[in-house]
Design goal:
Pfam families: ABC_tran, TOBE_2
CATH topology of the largest domain: Rossmann fold
GO molecular function: ATP binding
Oligomer: single chain
CATH superfamily of the largest domain: P-loop containing nucleotide triphosphate hydrolases
CATH architecture of the largest domain: 3-Layer(aba) Sandwich
Keywords: ATP-binding, Nucleotide-binding, Transport
Number of domains: 2
Shape: elongated
Bound molecules: adenosine-5'-triphosphate
InterPro entries: AAA+_ATPase, ABC_SmlMolc_Importer, ABC_transporter-like_ATP-bd, Mo/tungstate-bd_C_term_dom, P-loop_NTPase, Transp-assoc_OB_typ2
Protein name: ABC transporter ATP-binding protein
Largest sheet: 6 strands, mixed
Number of strands: 20
Number of helices: 9
Strand order of the largest sheet: 6-7-8-3-9-10
């Protein structure tokens, strides 16, 4: 109940308040998203152990934007959501909503809806009662509240015939839909989603994510979402903040994060990738030439990151996505370019692609995703691999 926005009692009403919008430009966003509906400014929060729960969070979510906090367990995502909701106060920094500080506002007076991994529906109320409750608590007459609740339930695919059911009688996907309807029935400015799709079966997760995207446009939602699921974060969001151990490592569009991760940790957290250690040989004309620890030469674009830029003679990590590597059952001379020899260790069927494990150089291993139906080397047989300069990134350190 600790994170329940909708609670009973005189103080326990949800509800929104109109604040004056103030411009807080986000340089990378189109004009429609230029006003930060919610902004985290220099947020810090000490943790329960030595590691801070959040050591730095600085981002603004534009009106109409879907933003996701992506990170592994313990990254600080829930703490950030709870700070936005008002359940946790930061040690430093501030949260602004529509340009105004909200530190003094309790959760039920913030203009938000919240859904967590557990739908937390009121078990003793009917489905309709759950969704009508936020409206009644704000003084809406019952008949009108029920009408609006039924309309919101219908948007989420819950028919009126289920209105009299208890939440426990519904499967998890439908319970979550009821929770979303309840969170949105009073038309809050901001929807906070703390990994609500995590516990669902894949099919339910996909249809719910699709409905969320559809309703986001229909209802003009602004969403701050937290998840550990990189594919979901990239597919659902306009922008993603990658958090790890309480630190925001990168904030950008899904394509930026996937194609140009700021560091190898972001690369690994945003999708499958190869991280190959080596030493920088030279940097010429924007191309970083590397001697990999497995003995092979390789090339990629140098990246300036938290560890600085790659320097000739310095240690580095070359990052490349598995689908950006070409593999052919040919010799390097036949494949041409900068192709190098490889040996196929394993090919596994993964539905829409094959997952190949290749041996390169002295003990190096490379993961490659290959479309189904293309010619493959024999397992254990000779092959060649190649990639173009833009496919690989070289980061300092490794
Ligand atoms: N109220 C709190 N005050 C301070 N630290 C907290 C609080 N709640 C959780 N923490 C700590 O913050 C850290 C991050 O936890 P958090 O729950 O935010 O991770 P998360 O990224 O949401 O992980 P998960 O994906 O498992 O939910 C943990 O070390 C946790 O112990």
């Amino acid at each position: 109940m600790a994170r329940q926005l909708v609670s009973f009692g005189t103080e326990g009403t949800v509800f929104g308040r109109e604040g004056a919008a103030r411009s807080a430009p986000q340089p990378a966003m189109p004009a429609a998203m230029a006003v930060a509906l919610v902004a985290f400014e220099g947020i810090r929060k000490s943790g329960q152990g030595a590691t801070p729960a959040l050591s730095w969070l600085e981002l603004g979510v534009g009106r109409g934007e879907v933003a996701t906090l992506l990170g592994p367990a313990g990254a600080g995502k829930s703490v950030a959501i709870d700070i936005a909701a008002g359940f946790i106060q930061p040690d430093a920094g501030q949260v602004l909503m529509k340009g105004e500080r909200v530190a003094r506002l309790p959760p039920w007076r913030r203009d938000i809806g919240l859904v967590s991994t557990q739908p937390d529906l009121f078990p003793d109320m009917t489905v309709l009662g759950n969704v009508t409750f936020p409206l009644e608590a704000r003084g809406t007459a019952r008949a009108e509240g029920e009408e609006r609740a039924l309309a919101m339930l219908a948007r989420w695919g819950i028919p009126a015939s289920l209105g009299a059911a208890r939440p426990a009688a519904l499967p998890p996907g439908q319970q979550l839909r009821v929770a979303l309807a309840r969170a949105l029935v009073h038309a809050p400015s901001l929807l906070l989603l703390d990994d609500p799709l995590r516990a669902l079966e894949a099919e339910d997760r996909d249809t719910l994510a699709a409905d969320l995207l559809r309703l986001r446009a229909e209802l003009g939602l602004t969403v701050l979402h937290a998840t550990r699921d990189a594919a979901l974060a990239l597919a659902l969001s306009d922008r993603v903040a990658v958090l790890e151990a309480g630190r925001m490592r990168q904030w950008g569009t899904p394509r930026d994060l996937y194609d140009s991760p700021a560091d190898p940790v972001v690369a690994a957290l945003t999708g499958p990738c190869n991280r190959l250690s080596g030493t920088v040989v030279s940097i010429e004309d924007g191309a970083c030439h590397v001697r990999l620890d497995c003995g092979l030469g390789a090339v990629g674009l140098p990246v300036i990151g938290a560890e600085g830029s790659p320097q000739a003679g310095g240690r580095c990590t070359l990052v490349i996505r598995p689908e950006r590597v070409a593999v052919a059952p040919l010799s390097p001379a036949e494949l041409g370019g900068d192709a190098v020899p490889a040996r196929l260790l394993e090919a596994r069927f993964a539905g829409d692609h094959l997952r190949l494990r290749l041996l390169i150089g002295q003990g190096g291993e490379l993961l490659v995703h290959r479309p189904i139906g293309l010619p493959l080397p024999e397992t254990g047989g000779e092959a060649s691999i190649a990639w173009d300069l833009s496919a690989a990134r070289v980061h300092a350190g490794g």
